[in-house]
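Re: your question about Glycogen debranching enzyme central domain-containing protein

S., sorry for the slow reply, the queue was backed up all week. Below is exactly what I fed in.
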Amino acid sequence: MVEVTHTGGEENDAFDIELKNFPPGSVIAFRVSLTSSARAAIALMRQNLTLFGFKMRSMSGSNLRQSDKDAGLKAILSRMSLSALNRALFRCHEEEADEHHGNGAYDIPRYGRFVYCGLQGLIPLLNDVRVNNDLGHPLCDNLRRGVWLGEYTAKRLQRHPSTKDLGLWFEQLFKALEQVPHYLRPCYFDAALCGAYNLVREAVWQKMNEFVQGGSDFLRALALGTVAFVGDCPSAKLPALSENIAAPLPPDNIDMESGKRVPCPSSLAAAEGYRSSP
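Result:
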């Protein structure tokens, strides 16, 4: 009545099922399970999600301990300046394209570019998808088709010295996503990205004074806005500062063209690009 044919390769447990001589009124039941690679990938993603406070269980049902990657991420964020966190969270398409010669905001077919190249560009979309359970959204379709968005997030951060370590951390976080079944990718991507975003956002506030740290949600949101509009933009540099300037000195970074460390004071000039963003 049933002919099962293995159509996958050595690493792909795919089968075709063909019903033969199946008379009307017949009933058949199939028992299916995830492939070994998919189970391993989901187990790794669940373990990673514990560092964001999620209470996760293994495939066997036992509780998972919090991942030790939590300390690594917090250490990376503690070393980043507010200018570097601006790069991780924000930056519009024009800023990114100007600095990296053509690279810009991620573009989703049937939707368009994100408003921001950083993590903040994803959050409103993920919130809408989650609230409305809109799995037909172009973002979900893009995630099901491939892991390009995770790769973009990691590679973009790795291009600049101030965010390179964070980019490498994201690369490890999303490495297992490729083996996760395509219909589960939006769920796990949302949980991982939003969890990381919350920690990055908290790192921003921890670098501000106690008035902001202990303030209301509205106050903290306003403080986050200052990071959005003040950043390092190589094509809009401030005039050279005096060598006699008193501490605290502005942050410095490695110039990507000369390879030398140069002062990179943040400027409101970086906000000019936001006027042209959607």
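The chain has eleven helices and six strands. Residues 163 and 271 are 20 Å apart (CA to CA).

Happy to talk it through on Thursday.
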